[in-house]
Amino acid sequence: MTSNVTLFEMSPRDGLQNEARAIATADKIKLVNLLGDCGFSKIEVASFVSPKWVPQMADGAAVLAGITRRAGVSYAALTPNMRGLDAAIAAGADEVAIFASASEGFSQHNINCSIAQSLERFAPMLPVIRNHGLPLRAYVSCVTDCPYDGPTAPSQVADVAAKLYAMGAYEVSLGDTIGAGSPDSIDAMLRAVCDVVPAAALAGHYHDTHARALDNIRASLEHGLRTFDASVAGLGGCPYAPESKGNVATEDVVEMLHGLGYDTGLSRAALSTAAAFARSLTEPS
Ligand code: HMG
Ligand code: MG
């Protein structure tokens, strides 16, 4: 019997945020529109963070204004604070995501505050998100390893995930930010997290630095996770996680899941077109 797996497409945000070369807004819009042909229900298209921290994401409002919105697709944005949330709402994001870390070192380097301070920063955003009827997603970074602090304790991931879930996030996405996780460390982490957040409200967000992301997805399926973040052509990385590479490639996840008998609702042909365009944006011509 097949069961459904949702892939949350990350390439316009996690994929492009790390790109050193300037990418034209029109090309970002074209990428999102090509992704709209693939069958995704969720695409993360922008990030309303400080342009001093991540210059590549400075044109998020123009991207959201320029895309052709497909019925049934939720166009999501990252929002680190109230200012980012206001901008995302003004730009017409369909859902927003707050992001925290399970390790103090990455929290400081990525959002310039402690884990506790980040959670305090999110608190005033919650009523605004609710009043606008926006679905809220949340990320926890460094769920197995941190580029600054080394291995992360599963209990620490569970603690942050539970707090974000209690804030009203419909889903907590678990980020192996530097792709250092293995099926064993992912398994240990999920044992702790699934005790405090239902598996149906968890997503795996695995970067593929060491080519273990597909194995980590398989390990996560065994815990009942049915949503995974991925990026066409494996685009991306985080500018504040020096060792990170892109999210696992969406096309590879689809190939593996379809082989295992899962249904993703995604078109391989449309994915291949979107991946080729994504590659053309980032590879030397
Ligand atoms: P800060 O410097 O501590 O904050 O940065 P601040 O409030 O002092 O603001 C500094 C300047 O930024 C000010 O401007 C603010 O107005 C401005 P100035 O007065 O100097 O001219 N500012 C903003 N501008 C636009 N939009 C905003 C905004 N907020 C402040 N929303 C802050 C704190 C959180 C803003 C900063 O650290 C930041 O933007 N960090 C984001 C870093 C980032 O985007 N990282 C990548 C995304 S996370 C990720 O990739 C991981 C994930 O994929 C999961 C995984 O893989 O693990 C999600
Ligand atoms: Mg990421």
Task: Explain this structure.
The protein has one domain (3-282): TIM Barrel, CATH 3.20.20.70. Helices cover 41% and strands 16% of the residues. The chain has 12 helices and 10 strands. The protein has helices at residues 11-15, 25-36, 60-66, 82-91, 104-111, 115-122, 125-131, 154-166, 183-193, 213-222, 250-259, 268-282, and strands at residues 6-9, 42-47, 74-78, 95-101, 136-141, 145-146, 150-151, 171-176, 202-206, 227-230. Helix 10 (213-222) links the parallel strand 9 (202-206) and strand 10. The chain is globular. Residues 14, 175, 177, 205, 207, 238 line the site of magnesium ion.
Layout of helices and strands, plus pairs?
Layout (H helix, E strand, L loop, with lengths): L5 E4 L1 H5 L9 H12 L5 E6 L12 H7 L7 E5 L3 H10 L3 E7 L2 H8 L3 H8 L2 H7 L4 E6 L3 E2 L3 E2 L2 H13 L4 E6 L6 H11 L8 E5 L6 H10 L4 E4 L19 H10 L8 H15 L3
Helix pairs in contact: 2-3, 2-12, 3-4, 8-9, 9-10, 11-12
This protein binds 3-hydroxy-3-methylglutaryl-coenzyme A and magnesium ion.
3-hydroxy-3-methylglutaryl-coenzyme A binds next to α4, α5 and β5.
